[in-house]
Amino acid sequence: MNVWKFTQRICLIAAVLLLVLIVLRLFLPLIERQRQLRGEKELVEQDIQKEAERLRMLKLKQEKLQEDPGFIEKIAREDLGYAKPGETVFRFVDEEEP
């Protein structure tokens, strides 16, 4: 009788282990895919934050361009190279080193 119960227990343990292995085999790829998607989500959220900051800066620049004549003059001088009559503009070019 003891041998029979022992054999039953061994078979039950083996069946449970087999069931656990089957479940792991089925769900392990899904768990890995979920981990990968979370990483991608984090990267996309970082990109969204960067673009939101860029949008905020562009809106601020737009407001300044609409309201601040001094800012318009600054942009015209720095970005476009404009000067007032009688002024001389000097441009310094960095030479590339070989």
Structure at a glance:
This protein has 98 residues and is mostly helical.
Structural key phrases:
98 residues; mainly alpha; 2 helices; 78% helix
Describe this protein's structure.
The protein is mainly alpha-helical and 98 residues long. The protein has one domain. It has two helices and no strands. The chain is rod-shaped and about 115 Å long. The N and C termini lie far apart (90 Å). The relative contact order is 0.04. The model has no long low-confidence stretch (mean pLDDT 89).
Report the structural category.
mainly alpha
- Radius of gyration using CA atoms only: 34 Å
- Helix segment tally: 2
- Poorly predicted parts: none
Order of helices and strands: HH
Largest sheet descriptor: none
Taking all residues together, what is the mean pLDDT?
89
- Content of β-strand: under 5%
Supply the number of structural domains.
1
Number of strands: 0
Helix content: over 70%
Global morphology: rod-shaped
Distance between the first and last residues' Cα? 90 Å
What's the helix and strand layout?
Layout: H1 2-67, H2 69-78
